[in-house]
Amino acid sequence: MSLDLSPAPGAAPAGRRLLRHARLETMLLARNGEQLLLALVIPAAVLVVGRFVPARIGIRFDLLVPSVLALALFSTGFTAVAIATGFDRRHGVLERLAATPLGRAGLVLGKAAATALVGLLQALVLVGLALVLGWRPTLSPTGLAWAVPAVALAETAFVAGALAMASLLRAEITLALANLLHLALAAGGALLVPADRYGPAEPVVRLLPTAALGEGLRQALASAPASGGALLPLVVAAVWAAVAVLVARKVMAWTS
What we know:
By secondary structure, the protein is an all-alpha fold. The chain has helices spanning 14-31, 33-52, 54-57, 61-90, 93-98, 103-132, 141-168, 171-188, 202-205, 209-222, 232-251. Helix content is 75%, strand content 0%. The longest helix has 30 residues, at 61-90. The chain is globular and about 70 Å long. The protein starts with 13 loop residues before the first helix and ends in a 5-residue tail after the last helix. 43% of the residues are buried.
């Protein structure tokens, strides 16, 4: 029997390349201690405190759970992607990967797929913890129908915005600004706190992509009243996603 050892150069099929890159990006996100802290540890701690010491949080537990989910999804979709991409760009990882058969489109799609997978895992862990703590969701079929696309579009806006930021700023500035925006929007972007508690600023707050994510999840999982309209989170998320994608496509930088 003969053994054929002749070279057989060639790229793997596009689907396999994308899946392998998405798996790599997922593993890198999961192994990052700082991002794990933002994505799971802090949200889980907020759930526990909100369940046993509700006065510390000031939000009913049924509203707190979707709010914490929104915070966790924002941390993965924006903060983690911005920081990781910024340092990948500085170290030349982006330009090297873009020159492989994976290509620029495959690189971006792999990051997006990894973000979606990590977000799904976050949701499973946090919802499981909330159920153990006694949460019983009040599901709204109509709210769910609007919330699912709103969440997907809001995450698209976050990822595109993160890519744009990492392209325009140095890695260290991206790190500082991404963490600063995480803190600012967690408190003032209707992620944890419902939009109707912002007083005169409520109309402006409802136009933020973070509000679209938070309000959409609260309407779906806690039947929160939609004073701004049940369709508003979806519309806001769609507009932000379209603008962010256009900006990212224009400014995306692959070299340091």
